[in-house]
Design brief:
This protein is of the alpha/beta class and 322 residues long. It has 12 helices and 7 strands. Strands 1, 2, 3, 6 and 7 form a 5-stranded parallel sheet that branches. Helix 3 packs parallel to helix 4, helix 5 runs antiparallel to helix 6 and helix 6 packs across helix 10. Bound molecules: zinc ion.
């Protein structure tokens, strides 16, 4: 793993998306939201993190009771809930009014928990803020008028791209491959933070308070503690999302309307004409080569999962464009 440290140190707010993941995701034996989410809150407790915002589509929760259990646990552990739509609609796949209805559908369900948060944050699914100017302005206007603040993703590490490989390696019972996969998961988190922070400095001339994203995947359950340890050793000081959102660089929406899978910093970089390194990381090809199994390739799994989401919400499916 890269032996480097941020000099000076950086501040970073952790956020978690998709505490239930999405309908139709193949969970490996021994994993599910009731295992993954407590493992993540335990890692946060160990590293002294509280007030971590969780953004989850509610349709994949498996019913009211399952949703209540996870959200209660999350908030009792000192964390907060934000709005992430009900079906996990992607604004690339739907019209504006359909997207807004999806925000409103989940708003009713999550009210007991979001009411406890000091700010009503909204996170766009896949950080896609609209592939047309009309959609971008339409949804942003709706959010502003309804008391929401959009929380962008500043840094991500393509963690859901590890999901299918993790399922295959689990099924294969290959301990050596699992150890390698976990190592790469942590190393990729650290490497992508380094790369995207370098990009941020090139664009903004300083470090913003970074808003980092990790999803509630089985690998996160196993590796989040190691990632937080590696981040702290590299000079990361953990901050709250409220603190990060007070940074003007996080409030300044990227002036780029795009269907591409780009986060806030990456959109700014593309707008400024910079090239993005390791986007996506080269290691993804290696992990896709692990234990090929019918129907469990990354593109196959995610295509099925998100095509079904697009169908359910009344839209059309488009694959991620890096
Ligand atoms: Zn999501």
């Amino acid at each position: 793993m890269d032996d480097f440290a941020f000099k000076p140190g950086i501040k970073l707010a952790v956020t978690v998306d998709d505490l239930f993941l999405w309908k139709g995701v193949p969970w490996p034996d021994g994993y599910g939201p009731s295992i993954v989410v407590p493992a993540m809150t335990a890692a946060f407790a160990e590293h002294g993190l509280s007030h971590v915002y969780g953004f989850s589509a509610t349709a994949p929760s498996g019913g009211d009771r399952a949703m209540r259990e996870i959200f209660d646990h999350w908030c009792e552990a000192g964390h907060r809930i934000g709005n992430h739509t009900h079906y996990h609609a992607n604004l690339n796949w739907v019209e504006q009014d359909v997207y807004i209805r999806d925000i409103e559908r989940t708003a009713e369900l999550i009210e007991p928990w979001i009411a406890e948060a000091p700010v009503r944050y909204f996170r766009y699914a896949m950080d896609n803020w609209g592939n047309t100017a009309a959609k971008y302005h339409g949804v942003q206007d709706y959010l502003h008028a309804n008391g929401y603040t959009s929380a962008p993703v500043g840094v991500w590490f393509y963690d859901t791209e590890f999901l299918a490989a993790h399922t295959r390696v689990s099924k294969a019972g290959d301990g050596e491959a699992m150890a390698w996969l976990r190592y790469q998961f942590v190393a990729t988190a650290l490497r992508q933070l380094q790369i995207q922070a370098t990009t941020a400095r090139a664009v903004f001339g300083r470090d913003p308070i970074y808003i980092w994203l990790v999803h509630a995947t089985p690998l996160a359950a196993d590796c989040l503690g190691d990632i937080l340890t590696a981040f702290a050793a590299a000079g990361v000081e953990f901050a709250s999302l409220e603190e990060a959102m007070a940074d003007p660089l996080n409030q300044k929406d990227a002036p780029l309307i795009t269907p591409r899978f780009l986060n806030h910093i990456q959109k700014w970089a593309v707008h400024e004409g910079l090239t993005l390194d390791e986007c996506p990381p080269g290691v993804l090809e290696e992990i896709e080569a692990l234990h090929p199994m019918d129907g469990l390739d990354y593109a196959g799994v995610m295509g099925r999962v998100f095509k079904a989401v697009a169908d359910e919400v009344g839209g059309w499916f488009e694959r991620k464009q890096y």
